[in-house]
Amino acid sequence: MRITRERHVYSLGVSEPVATVTAPCSLTVETCDCFNGQVTEDGQPKARLNFSHVNPATGPIVVEGAEPGDVLRVHIRAIRPEKTGALMTAPGAGALPDRVKGDTRICPIADGHFTFMGVELPLNPMIGVIGVAPAGESVPCGTPGDHGGNMDTIGIREGAILRLPVFVKGAYLGLGDLHAAMGDGEVSVTGLEVFGEVDLDLSLEKGASLPCPLLHDGDEVSFLASAETVDGAIHASTGYMHDFLLAKTSLNADEALMLMSLCGHARISQIVDPLKTARFAMPVSVLAKFGVVVE
């Protein structure tokens, strides 16, 4: 099934679905860029942007049979960005809000790379916004949380498996904000923002229950947490991994934290959204040595 980008939302929640599917299923989802096509040239003034129309997510997609307490397993089979991307800085935003005047750049994309300031650089396509309806009120697509949303995590890439906790009947999946390239932190306030399409396989894990999104990118398994501060997000994601190890292994609390300190990684995903996102990652190879397999 193909789901076109014309039907999109600016918040994740329960609303009129663009499609209803039965898992397991495969989808191709077209997405807008985070600007919804508003940035079209180098040096474009910020005043020309309507910030009430940013971070659109294609959806929502209702998954029949999904119930609160289930987990929606999303296998990202392919990400295909279009041929140009846009990025920007903005005064008062990003990691260095007092150092920039605000600017935009348009970068061509071809043959596995993009060109920035005349230099060819490699692509690393990923999904910035992906999530389900939260338990309460709808959440703007630009805000991350336990439901997913604008997590801007570079590991949400081609080949990865993202597990999302289901909070409402039908899940109500939405996604968008593709980046052709982005580094950890997203420090300028954007990555290389692109229109594109994503091939997904959806399945349900009944009663599996998760506290937050769980990412398996092939090399590592990570818990993704968002909070008002980076410290808060790191504390939460580290705690979720610690709970996971206590539940899945025979390690005690001290031993589990020792293992995490020896082999795990506390990483920053993004520091520019209304809530900050961090992840705690453990190598798949290390988990396997302790009898933990995440597929």
From TrEMBL:
Gene3D superfamilies: 2.40.10.120, Acetamidase/Formamidase-like domains. It comes from the Bacteria. GO terms for molecular function: hydrolase activity, acting on carbon-nitrogen (but not peptide) bonds, in linear amides. InterPro entries: FmdA_AmdA (IPR004304). It holds the Pfam family FmdA_AmdA. This is Amidase. It comes from Bilophila wadsworthia (strain 3_1_6). The lineage of its organism: Bacteria, Pseudomonadati, Thermodesulfobacteriota, Desulfovibrionia, Desulfovibrionales.
